[in-house]
Structures are given as structure tokens and as C-alpha cells.
Amino acid sequence: MIDENVVAWLREAPFSDPNLQRLRPDFDYEEWFRRGRAMSAAVDTLIAYLEQEDLKHPSADAMRAAYALGWIADDGQRASTALVRILGSKDVSVRSEAASALGRLRSTGALPLLERLLNDTDENVNVRANACIAIGRMRVASSEPLLRRMLGDTQQFLVSCAEEALRLHAGAVT
Q1: What is the C-alpha separation between 152 and 143, in angstroms, rounded?
Q2: Which residues of the chain have pLDDT under 50?
Q3: Rounded to two decimals, what is the model's pTM?
Q4: Out of 1.25.10, 3.30.2310, 1.20.140, 1.20.120, which CATH number does the structure's domain 109-174 have?
């Protein structure tokens, strides 16, 4: 069930509209996360929202829901399942935020999928970059060779992400 109060909260944060960001340059995301965590229906609503998303024609709020879920959910299986599903979206920003959220939740069950995304040279570089960071956040020993291999990638952005992923993988504070 979708709680409209949660949807209203979700839409408060300025994301994709540069005019909103100019109008709200001091938006406090930490406060926004705190209020989201305090809403008893927030995580369930975000999961339901992502479970209902049309992957071929995602709504304007799908990226927001994936982003928020990664910051306010615990590492529950339902959240991870919803985020893995939304990785199939046709929208790059949705896929990118879903990959990032899986890393923040340290959803190790999604590791093989994130590794495939990182290895997929046809995938958008931002999705690959977020998959790389997510893999590092999970701190799974078997993923270190892949992260090290990314240090030799031809795209400097991915090399920088691999460096950060390896730092995270080594257990640096996140």
C-alpha cells in the first residue's frame, strides 16, 4: 500500500530539476533522511512503489524511491529484491540509484548482478560506476580482483571509482 504522506516526503528533495536545486541550495538531506526513517510506513511504501514501477516507462519518482530506500532502509531482503528488480528499468538514473542503494544496504545477494553491470561495457558509465562503488561497500573478498582489474580501465572515471571502491572494500569508514 502506498502511503501518500511518504510520497509527499519523497517529492520534497530537489533532484532532477535544476530550478528546484537553485531555489533550495541549502536542502538538508540528513534531516530529510531522519524524517523518512521516522515515518513508520516509509520503507514499505518505497518498496511497494518500486515493486509497481513500469520498467519500460518508469515514473518520475522511481529514481527518488531507489535513492531514498538506500538511505533509510535496513538491509532487509524485501528492499534488496525491489532494488534488484528496478535495475531492469530503461531509465539510466533509476538503474544508477538502484545500484548505489544496493551498495549502501550492503546487499551481498545482489553482488553477482552488480559485477555483471560493472563488466558490461555497453552499460551506461554512471550505472557501472555506482555498481563499482556498491561492490566496494559490500567488502566481499572475492570481488577484490574485479575491482583491481578496473584500475586499468580506459575510462578515468571508472578508474577513480575503482580506487574508491577498493578503499571502501578495505574497510575504510563509509
Answers
A1: 16
A2: 20, 173-174
A3: 0.91
A4: 1.25.10
